Amino acid sequence: MVIKSSPQSLRSVQSRLANRFAQISDRFHLAGSLFTREMLVKNPQSGDLHAVIVHRIILNSIDAAAQSGDPTLRALSAELFGLRVSQQNLATLLNTLDVVLGNNRLKNQNSDVLQLKTLGVSSYRSSLTSLLFEILAVSLGFSTKAGLTIDRKDVIRIIELGINSESRSEAFSCLRSLCINAKYSILPMVSSASDRHIPSPLFFQIPRIVSTLIASLESPDVDLMKTLAFISKTYGPVTSTLYKHFYVIFTALKQPIHQLEYGSHVADLLANCIESAAGVIKPEVFLTVQKAVCESSIMHPDSSIYLQLLSAFLSLNNEFVPSPLHVARSVSARTRSKCEYAHRLRALSNVASRPRTTDLANVKAMKTLILNEEATIRDESPEDIEDPEDVESPDEQEEEPMEVIHVVEEKKIPEEVTASRKKKNSESAPVVVVKKKPKVTKEVKTDLLEGEASVDDILNLFEMD
Length: 465
Known about the structure:
Blueprint: H1 7-11, H2 14-24, H3 30-42, H4 45-49, H5 51-68, H6 71-83, H7 87-101, H8 125-142, H9 152-163, H10 168-182, H11 187-190, H12 209-215, H13 222-235, H14 246-251, H15 263-276, H16 283-299, H17 304-314, H18 325-334, H19 340-353, H20 363-379, H21 394-399, H22 415-425, H23 455-464
């Protein structure tokens, strides 16, 4: 009925809803908790109108989930708390986690913690702690209201306490939820303490998530490697400074990667660092890891882990690291795996080893085109090519100077010598008419062949006579 009812009809029965909420709040009822959830989803205003009663129903659900350990009840109680999340509720939840993780004996319950019946009971401590971390992870996803803020230092401090406790898995899950929902507002706390290029005012005050996780590599497990791979994928190996710990992560593995329970997460982490941080990791580190990966991939060609790492090295963009092309082609030919990494490795090997053709056109057509161009160039006469020195300015083109038919010499010759030379040469040679070009002072140099005399020599002969 609640699902099919409209918000207007639900507002008209607020008095009946109040009575129903009061009956449900006496003790835990699964049906009553489901009814409350549907009401909060369908008509969120009912939670504001009956905030005290709804909060009591949520606390009863948390107690029941902590006592039973049923995953359905745990998910239901976490969603109920997330639907009613507020800044005060988040602060109260963090205080409760601080009390539980601090291993302090709670004498008097106050308003700063959740009023739970299971709080302070040693037999439910572990179950309650993991449940509260699940509630925190879900609540971070519902924290989309305007003005809802939370101190990130307090959240990271609680998560660090949880990593070192029995609720390690839930704490890592909460950390991944924080990275998803907080995004880049949590980035200054993600990078390691050795990073000095992030200009954040909290740089020297807040703990570093990556440094804390790397310090836990002495006893690696699934949750740790899954969280490191998740952080590398979310923020990148360079931004999260995970590239600085690339070799440390690789050497922390006590067994071959394919034999580890968390081998797939290690492969995701290493492959992401190889592909995204090729220019900031030392080539010597790449060569060491590449050698180990090539040896293992040859011995285990069907392992998807080594196929993924080998394809990452094949796409590595670092000129100081040779590409393992021969190993990749050998492994891709031997593998019987049908996973996506096998197809990717085969494609990269084929692309890297394909023959390079510089001319894709028809050879005969290209030869014909070249011959036609040569014939065209040969047909063009040299006279058609204009010399840039012969191009006249506009002023010279207007005057149109007369063309010189034959120039013998430009030096000024005395009139007497000219007359005598014309008289002597008139008997043996035809008269040469020289048309001078007006306003042109161009030097003409005559190259004499063997046996020829210059004009000066000829004139000297006339003077001797």
